Description:
Elements (H helix, E strand, L loop, with lengths): L2 H16 L5 H9 L3 E4 L33 H12 L7 E5 L21 H9 L4 E4 L18 H25 L3 E5 L4 E2 L6 H15 L7 E6 L10 E2 L3 H11 L2 E5 L10 H8 L5 E5 L15 H12 L6 E5 L8 H20 L3 H9 L3 H11 L4 H11 L8 H11 L5
Parallel strand pairs: 1-2, 1-10, 2-3, 3-4, 4-6, 6-8, 8-9, 9-10
Antiparallel strand pairs: 5-7
Helix pairs in contact: 1-13, 2-10, 2-13, 3-10, 5-6, 8-9, 9-10, 10-13, 11-12
Amino acid sequence: MKENLIQQAYEIARERYAALGVDTEKVLEQMQNFHLSLHCWQADDVTGFENQGGDLTGGIQATGNYPGKARNIDELRQDILKATSYIPGTHRLNLHEIYGDFKGKVVDRNEVEPEHFQSWIEWGKENNMKLDFNSTSFSHPKSGDLSLSNPDEGIRRFWIEHTKRCRAVAEAMGKAQDDPCIMNLWVHDGSKDITVNRKLYRELLKESLDEIFATEYDNMKDCIESKVFGIGLESYTVGSNDFYTAYAASRGKMITLDTGHFHPTESVADKVSAMLLYVPELMLHVSRPVRWDSDHVTIMDDPTLDLFSEIVRADALDRVHYGLDYFDASINRIGAYVIGSRAAQKCMCRALLEPIATLRDYELTGRGFQRLALLEECKALPWNAVYDMFCLRNNVPVGESFIAEIEKYEAEVTAQR
């Protein structure tokens, strides 16, 4: 797309929004501070670099077998950098523990050390990507159906030690990058069929979490993530939304809201203002559930638009962190990164462009017709011209032009794997 056309469209949009009291230049500045935490596991279908290998367990599944997935740490890093070259702004990288640089050695999960992520820390500095982190309870011989809530003390202590060590890794990352590393704790624990020991497992999970979080750190932040169910664990989830909401509120922990981890009729957007009254911050894992937590690539759909709009309306920009969480193995994986990332950015751009002062005034003065009318008209305003300018100023492809470039990378690189 020619630069002069982008500029002309932006100037028109700038005037349109100025008439509604919205400063598009301020929005572009805010967009530069909107950092996504890109999920490393999209590049290789959540395989990781452990020696055990094997299929995914723990109620999750990557579907599809599109050729060209990353097979090692070098290919994964290469693909991530290629993806970020098409995403405007600067972003973070979210790592699971199974993506450590183990250099071919067998390192069990209760033995992981910060040294196994030192090369990631150095890579992040070299590429201006700060790191976030996750413990990994699934796809391991000791995973089973229960980890931190397992009545078998030996297994439970294995996962407690693993999670403690992951927090130490996150602390080292945060200290090295001079910015807190956000460590997400999600465990798959649950039951396929009816259980009569719901309370027992939740008591054990609570005790495990209290022990894990007993050590306080200065350079990392903890967040805890619930789920409705997992594949093969459909009847009961130990770490339910109610459990983690109560735990986080009582312990001052961040909550992770994964948009695929709730009932299809629930509004995740509605949870933002409710939870921020009681917890310090939120972490988002943004994906697109199709009838279940299927981790489809994020698109600019109504639930995602509503979520980002609510964050802006709640004045919560400085209390919410943004990550992506999907693993689509049925399409070009770099393309999946770019589509999802740019979709999230477009949703935020639209949210920031909303004439919130006028809308709030309409609402507080009882002018419901005017509020609804303006909300509808905002849908047709030229927000896309502002996003195009955001891309242009960040020297990344504008519009659909990234498609051909990703096709070229596929032909030259990933198709050769």
